Amino acid sequence: MKGYRAYFLNKLLWLLVTFVFAFLLNFTLPRLMPGDPVAAIVSRLAQGMSNSTGMKEVYEHYAALFGTNKPILDQFFLYVVNVLHGNFGESFSQFPRPVADIIKSSILWTIGLQFPAIIVGWIIGNALGAIAAYLKGGFDKVLLPVSIFISNLPAFGMAIILLVMFGVDLKWFPTSGGYGFDLIPNFSWNFIWSVIVHYQLPFWSIVLIAIGGQAIGMRSMSIYELNADYIKYSRFMGINDRKIIGYVFRNAMLPQVTGLALSIGTMVGGALFAEIIFSYPGLGYTLYNGILGQDYPLISGATLIITMMVLIANFAIELLYGVIDPRIKAAQAD
Amino acid sequence: MKNTLRQVLHSGKFMVGFVILLTILLVVLVYPLIIKDSPLGIIGQGTFFPPGIYVSTYDSLNAPKQYTLLLTDAAAKRIANKMSNDDRLAMKEWLVADGVPASEIDVTKTASLLDLWEKNYDPKKNIPGMIFAKVRYYQRVNTSVQGLLSTEGAIIASKNAQTGALEQASTINQSDYVNLSQVANVRVLPLGTDNFGRDVLTELIRATGVSLEIGLVAGIVATLIGLSLGLLSGYVGGMVDDVIMFFTNLFTVIPSIVLLILISFSIGQDQRGAFTIAVVIGFTSWVWTARAVRAQVVSLRNRDHVNLSKLSGHSIVHIIIYDILPYIASYVVMALILQISSAILIEAGLSILGLGPRTTEVPTLGLMMNWAMIYQAEILGKWWAYFPVLIVIALITFSMNLMNTGLDQVFNPALRD
Fold first, then answer.
1. b/e map A223-260, b = 16+ CB within 10 Å
2. Between chains, do A220 and B415 touch, taking CB under 8 Å as contact?
C-alpha cells in the first residue's frame, strides 16, 4: 500500500501542476494577442452607439472589470482571487447573469452526458477490437474498415447523421434540447421521460465515435499480444484458449487504459460538438453560445471548467490504472 | 528503399486510400480549369435550390423551333405534378365522408383519384357536420382540379407600345416541346445551391482544395515541431529531455480544443485567414509526434552504429541526419499523414464553432458546414448543403487513415494479417 501512496502523491502533484499551467494559459493566451482586448470587446458592444462619453464609460467599466488598467501582475492576482471565489464575471450575452451561474446550470448536463457515453463507447470498442483480433477472418474484415470509417467521421458528422436519420426523418427522437421545451425541470415522470428521450441521440453519437477509435487500438494491441512469445509458449503447454484470452485481454487492456487517460481531452472536445449539434444544454452548447455572442467572460470561464473536468478525469483514470497494474506498485516499492 | 516502395505499392489498404486521395486531388485541380465560375459567386436569389437542371423559362418560350409531341401520358403526368399532397388528402377526406370506402381510395394513384372525384363530387351536396369554410375549401379544390383538367394552352401576351393594352402574341399548346439543346440558357446544378444561393458543387471543390492546403500546412508545422522536439529530447537527454517532456505531457492532458478556442477567439475575426488557422492548428497538435519520435530516438541512441558515428567525430547534426532520421523516417511520414487528416477535422470543428477562417475570401469544408448549420439545412431536409461536405471530409480522412494503416502493416510486420 505504501507504493501506491507514493504513486498517488506523484499523480496529485502532477494534477496540481497541470492545473496551474492550464490556469496560466487561460489567463495569458487572450492577453498575448496584439491590441487591447477591452477595446475590441467595447467596439463590438458599442456598435451603433454614437455617444462618445457613453462609449468611454463602457470602456472604463470593462477596463476596471478586467483590471486591464493595472500592471499585468496585479491583473493576474485579481484573476486568481476572482476565480477562487467562483467569480468569473458577468456574461455579456446574458447580461447581468453571472458566468458562474450559467456554468453551474450546464455542467451537470455535460457530466451526465459525456462521461457515461465515453465509458460505454470505450468498453464496447475494446470488446469489439479484442473479438476482431481473436476471431480474425470475416468479422475482422468487416469490423476494421467500418471502425476506421466511423472513427474518421468528424464528431459533429456522426451527430448530424443521427439527427437527420432518427430525429428528422424517422421522428423517433427530438432533435434539440435536453428536455421538452414545454416543461419546467422537476421530478415528475413526465420530465424524467422527456430527459431520457432527449438523451439518446447525443449519447449514441458520442458512443459510436468512441467505439470506432477504441476498436482499432484494441485490435492492434491484441494482435501484438497474441503473437507474443508467452502466448505461443502457453499454446504449446496446452493451456486452454479461454485462459489465454484472459491473459491477452488483460495485457492489451493496460495500454488502452493509458490511452483513455491521454485521449480523454480529445474525446471530451469531440463530445462538445454533439452537444452543439443537438443544442444539448451542457457546457459545449454554452461555449458555442458564448462564441456566437462574442461573450469573452463566458468563453474564458467555460474553457477553464472544461479543462478542469478533463484534468480531473485524467487523474481519476491514472489512479485506477495504479490499482489494476501490479507493475506500478512494484516499481514504486523499490 | 526500392524494396520498401514495392511493398508499399503492394499493400491493398494503402493503394485504396491513395487512389481515393489522388482522385480527390485530381478533381480539385482539374475542375477549376473546366468550370471557371467564382466559387463564392452568388447565382441564386433565394436559399437552398434543390439539385437539378435549371432551364430558362424565358428562353424556352423563345426557342427557335417548337416541336409538337403527342404523348398519351403527358396530361396525367402534368396533373400528378401539380396536385399537392394536401389536396390529395383533402379529396380523400371528402370522398370518405361522402361514403366511398377508404380502402378504394389511393391518394398516390392520380388517375383513379380524379376519376372518383369526378364521379362523386357535387358542390351542392351537404355533408353533415362540415363547416361552411370547409365546404368553400372543397369548392376551391374542385375549381383547381377542373383547371388542371382543361386542355387549353397558355396565352402569351405582349404590351402594345401605344395603348398599353395586352395583345395576344402566341399560344403555347400543352403538346408543345422545345429541344433542350436549343434553349440558350440551361444551368446544371448537380448539388443545388446553398443558403446564399451559391453553386454548392463549385464551392465544395474549392473548399476541398483549401481544406487540403490547411491540412498540409498544419501537418507540416506540427510534424516539424514534433520532430525537432522529439529528436532534441530523445538524443540530448538530461535536463533538455526533462523540460521538453514536461511541456509535452502538459499539452497532452490539456485539451487542445480549449487552446484552439482561446487562441482563435483572441486573434479575432479580421486576422483569421486560412493560413493563420492552419498555423494555429499546427502549433497545438505536435504533442503526439514529439512523444513518439522521442521514444524511437531513445531506443536508437545507444545502438552500435550511432556510437561508431560518435567515435568517428561526427557532429550531432550529422549523426541525427544520417544515423537517426533514416530509422524514424517511415514513422514521421505516417505521423504527417495523420496530422494532415486530423488538421482537416479540427478546421471543420473550429469553423462549426464559428471560429474558422474569415468567411469572405475562400470557402473551407468547415465553413460550408457552419453555413449549413446556421441556416438549419439539416432540420429543413436540405441534404445537398451539408451531406456532400460530410462525405468529402470523411473520404479525405478515411483515405489518409487507410494509407496510414497500410504503411503501418508494411513497416510493422507483426500487424500483418
1. bbbbeeeebeebeeeeeeeeebbebbbebbbbebbebb
2. yes
- Please tell me the CATH code under which domain A99-333 is placed: 1.10.3720.10
Cβ pair B348:A269 closer than 8 A? no
Question: Quick one: CA dihedral B197, B202, B204, B210, positive or negative?
Answer: negative
Could you write out the three-class secondary structure of A71-85? Answer: CHHHHHHHHHHHHHC
**Pairing, β B52-55 against β B176-177:** unpaired
Same domain, B289 and B403: yes
Predicted local confidence at residue B206, as pLDDT: 93
- Asked if A168 and B379 come within 8 Å (Cβ–Cβ), the reply is yes
Is the pLDDT higher at A329 or at B246? B246
pLDDT at B340: 94
Average pLDDT over residues B157-181: 84
Domain residues of chain A, as ranges? 2-84, 99-333
Amino acid sitting at position B3: N
| B14 has a chain A CB within 8 A of its CB | no
- List A residues 288-317 in contact with B (Cβ-Cβ < 8 A): 288, 291-292, 296, 299-300, 303, 306-307, 310-311, 314
Minimal CA separation from A147 to chain B, in Å? 10
pTM: 0.84
pLDDT tens digits along A282-330: 899 998 988 887 777 888 888 998 998 889 988 888 888 888 777 766 6
Residues B23 and B77 in one domain: no
Closest CA to B95 of B105, B108, B109: B105
Residue of A32 and B182 predicted with greater confidence = B182
Grid cell locating B357: 477562417
Interface check for A135 against chain B (CB to CB < 8 A): the answer is no
Let me know whether B226 and B103 are in one domain. Answer: no
Per-residue confidence (pLDDT) for residue A34, from 0 to 100: 61
CATH of the domain at B214: 1.10.3720.10
pLDDT of B313 higher than 70: yes
Chain B residues touching A32 at Cβ < 8 A: 266
- B155 plus B300 within the same structural domain: no
Same domain, B315 and B213: yes
Whether residue B409 is contained in a domain is answered as yes
Whether the pLDDT of residue A334 is over 60: the answer is: no
Which residue range(s) make up the domain with B213? 2-42+196-415
B57 part of a folded domain: no
The total number of structural domains in chain B stands at: 2
